[in-house]
Task: structure prediction
Amino acid sequence: MLSINDINMLAAQNEGYREQNKHLQQENINLRNAYKELEKKYNELSKNDLVKKLNELKTECKVERIRNRNLMKRLYRNNLTLKS
Result:
């Protein structure tokens, strides 16, 4: 059988574990919130990066279109000169 001192010691130890558990639960909540914030920032950065890449591709397409147009004009002029 347990003595009163043993029971009191176990009760105090149990209370300590309860407090520790509360702190760990709060820390877990804080870490979860921090993770959510980081995830939001990552998603925003990813979207920004995708928008930048899309704009770069659009610019490249415009440049390529102009280049092709100029090549076609040159080809057309060369064909006209050859026919003359």
Observations:
- The chain is about 95% helix and 0% strand.
